[in-house]
Design goal:
It contains two helices and seven strands; from the N terminus they run E-H-E-E-H-E-E-E-E. With about 150 residues, it is α+β, with helices and mostly antiparallel strands. Strand 5 and strand 6 form a beta hairpin. The termini are far apart.
């Protein structure tokens, strides 16, 4: 079992998503370039993104984006500031290995790695695994909205 560095109450202070839309339960690792987060929210029958109780694999992009936001918040916090808000601008090279995720019993482990950071935005790649099985991967670009 991985050591938990941050849990849900602290995570919700780093991103604009609150309540059930804060998808993660813990940060297991982070450094200047990457973050590893864990979630069990995909099993919640009242998940805010679910349609008729089902959660499509497409929603794994939101998990990746929230991991990126938490990473940005932690970096800003470590530098004594607050993260700038951003807008999801581009999603590329996304591959899904499953059709849906609400039926996955294992926790989700979401890895996000920053490839590029500038005053205008950020480029990350992300991957989502459950019990060692790859569920999705892709790249996401976020532009600074402030």
């Amino acid at each position: 079992m991985s050591k938990v560095l941050l849990e849900r109450p602290a995570l919700s202070k780093l991103i604009p998503h609150q309540g059930a839309m804060c998808l993660f339960d813990a940060v297991l690792h982070w450094d200047a370039q990457s973050i590893l987060c864990r979630a069990r929210s995909h099993r919640d029958p009242l998940h805010p993104l679910a349609i008729a109780g089902r959660l499509a694999a497409l929603h794994l992009i939101e998990y990746g984006a929230q991991a990126m936001a938490i990473h940005g918040g932690l970096i800003a916090q470590a530098n004594g500031s607050v993260a700038r808000s951003g807008v999801l601008a581009l999603v590329r090279e996304v591959a899904f290995e499953v059709d849906r995720i609400d039926n996955i019993e294992a926790d989700l482990d979401v890895q996000a790695t920053r490839l590029l950071a500038s005053g205008d935005g950020w480029l990350y790649e992300f991957s989502v695994d459950a019990a060692g099985q790859r569920l999705a991967r892709g790249r996401v670009a976020v532009i600074n909205s402030a």
